[in-house]
Amino acid sequence: MIIAVDGPAGAGKSTIAKIIADKLNINYIDTGAMYRAITYKCLINDIDITNEEAVSNLAKETDIDFKDNNIYLDGKILTDEIRTLEVSNNVSNIAKIKEVRYLMVDIQREIGTRSSVILDGRDIGSYVFPNADYKFYLVATPEERGQRRYKELTEKGYDVNLDEIIKEIIKRDEMDSNREFAPLKKTDDVILIDTTSKTIDEVVDDFLAIIK
Ligand code: DC
Fold this sequence. Notes:
By secondary structure, the protein is an alpha/beta fold. The protein has one domain: 3-Layer(aba) Sandwich (Rossmann fold). 52% of the residues lie in helices and 16% in strands. It contains nine helices and eight strands. It has a five-stranded parallel beta sheet with strand order 2-6-1-7-8, sandwiched between helices. The termini are close together. The mean pLDDT is 96. Bound molecules: 2'-deoxycytidine-5'-monophosphate. The site of 2'-deoxycytidine-5'-monophosphate has 14 residues, from helix 2, helix 4 and helix 8. Residues 9, 31-32, 35-36, 91-92, 95, 121-124, 172, 176 line the site of 2'-deoxycytidine-5'-monophosphate.
């Protein structure tokens, strides 16, 4: 079984996908974390992220894997280091590179062929798994999405500014929606859920009512 969960930044995709994976006892793949991992590796290696060839070469030499729903970059587990504002501000530039996407999509499809999985991202239902069993598309207002990210980051001790986060989210949505190859887009066959005024439990219930 393949469950695709797409939508803009901060709409609640990963929170919900993780819970559903637990409840259904299937794998969870955070595909955004893969693009974040490449971005992080470029930043720590001082690679110019506007140099598509350099970024693609780095991606080719990178090993990305998931174990127990955690992402590993070249054998090392990644957690908060890929959630910083610096990574968020740069990730869309990396995610628009076709060669990088091909590499990440190959990994996603390979995982999908050997296990039941729920994947969250931007192009899962539209490009990676167009024949997914279920295609969810989550949305929420930019203000609500910004508030959620702000809460998440401040709870982890980061000193962040709400307006800056909302601006970053809106800019990232624009870039992700307007890139040439496999952009964020709502296809006609999605199950649309607006999470703005819903609790996590309510959204989980919406999912479980649909998944058989
Ligand atoms: O879900 P996220 O915010 O962690 O994703 C980070 C970025 O990665 C997002 O701005 C766009 C990109 N992304 C993508 O292009 N395709 C995906 N399937 C998942 C994420």
